[in-house]
Design a protein that fits this description.
Blueprint: H1 8-13, E1 21-22, E2 30-31, H2 33-45, H3 52-63, E3 68-71, H4 78-87, E4 89-90, E5 93-97, H5 104-108, E6 109-114, E7 119-124, E8 131-135, H6 142-145, H7 149-154, E9 156-159, E10 162-165, E11 171-176, H8 189-193, E12 197-199, H9 206-215, E13 229-230, H10 231-242, H11 248-263, E14 267-269, H12 273-289, H13 297-308, E15 313-314, H14 316-320, H15 325-335
Parallel strand pairs: 3-11, 3-12, 4-13, 5-8, 8-11
Antiparallel strand pairs: 1-2, 6-7, 9-10, 14-15
Helix pairs in contact: 2-3, 3-12, 10-12, 11-12, 12-13, 13-15
Length: about 350
């Protein structure tokens, strides 16, 4: 598929390839993001077979310090991907099984009166972890879903007027079934906008499915998955990724893409400013995983559909014409010039 590529020479030549990015927490003052990312990807791929692109996207969201929404039909490995990412990191992991009777306090925590001390004591909820696996998030009521809003955006929880900070890194990996499935509640727009990216697993190819039948007959590969990095190592990777260089024309290109969604005749709700921030962070993470110290237009284009599409709402006419948000974003990539000018 073609892309409008005017002005890319300046963006490509401004910096050379560099595998090491300076960052805190490393004795030599440098963090090899690409090498550590490759180790994480290799560990996860032993569990999530035949899905290297999905694994790489999940790692990009981790390095962007974002949250991941995994959407697909039942049985294709959504929860397996979430667990594989969580177990690859030697940090605290909590799983929340979202059900219709789940309460917001089960997620965030609750203040309980202690009769011995005659004071209220805060009991942290399941959200107090480095990686929170929100399984089948759209099977809980919208009231319970909204308990994650403050956590995901501000990395904190407020209960009874008291604010509690969450540990870093903090990542929500949520799975959900398509809305046409029985017993699901649609995620509100504010909730979807807090997820950095959405990914669909898809069915495995024939060879991967055959291997799965052989390998998982007697054992679960998740039980043999050992952590690759600890929480401090992930924080160092996130900090190093955030310092990757982004040229001014590329920042303009990101803003132009976001603005184009707001002008599209196929959309009644375009991308928010938060979407632009998340797109740039995800592009930085993609560049870091590729071993570069700067972002290219290719990085932005690779992340545009996963980052933008789930935030957009189609017009009724576009829905009747069987358009979808992914196709709209793809068409915008073909029309918005890379130099980002007006």
């Amino acid at each position: 598929m073609g892309r409008v590529t005017e002005g890319t020479a300046e963006l490509r030549s401004e910096h050379g390839r560099a595998g090491l990015v300076s960052g805190p927490g490393d004795p030599a003052g440098e963090v090899d993001v690409a090498a550590e990312g490759a180790r994480l990807a290799a560990a996860m791929s032993r569990v999530v077979e035949g899905k290297p692109d999905v694994v790489r996207l999940a790692l990009a969201v981790l390095l962007a310090e974002g949250h991941l929404l995994i959407e697909d039909v039942p049985g294709v490995g959504k929860t397996t991907l979430a667990k594989a990412l969580a177990r690859s990191i030697d940090g605290t992991v909590r799983r929340i099984q979202f059900t219709p009777d789940l309460l917001p306090s089960d997620v965030t925590g609750v203040a309980v009166y202690d009769q011995e001390t005659r004071a209220f004591e805060f009991k942290p909820g399941a959200v107090f972890a480095n990686v929170v696996v929100a399984d089948e998030i759209n099977r809980a009521s919208p009231k319970t879903q909204s308990a994650l809003l403050e956590c995901m955006e501000e990395r904190q929880v407020t209960v009874d007027g008291v604010t509690y900070e969450l540990a870093r890194p903090f990542m929500v990996v949520a799975t959900q079934n398509p809305l046409e499935m029985e017993g699901t509640y649609p995620l509100p727009e504010a909730q979807r906008d807090r997820f950095t990216a959405r990914v669909s697993m898809g069915y495995p190819d024939r060879e991967a499915e055959l291997a799965m039948l052989d390998e998982r007959a007697t054992a679960d590969p998740l039980t043999d998955l050992s952590p690759v990095l600890d929480a401090a190592g992930v924080r160092a990777l996130v900090a190093a990724t955030a310092r990757l260089h982004v040229a001014e024309p590329l920042r303009r290109y990101v803003v132009s893409l976001v603005e184009a969604t707001r002008r599209s005749p196929d959309l009644r709700l375009g991308a928010s400013p938060r979407a632009g921030l998340q797109l740039l962070r995800a592009a930085r993470a993609t560049a870091a995983l590729a071993g570069r110290d700067h972002v290219l237009p290719d990085d932005v284009q690779a992340m545009a559909v996963p980052v933008l599409a789930h935030r957009l709402l189609l017009t009724p006419d576009a829905t009747l014409a069987r358009r979808d948000a992914q196709r709209v974003v793809t068409d915008l990539l073909d029309t918005v010039p890379v130099h980002g000018g007006r």
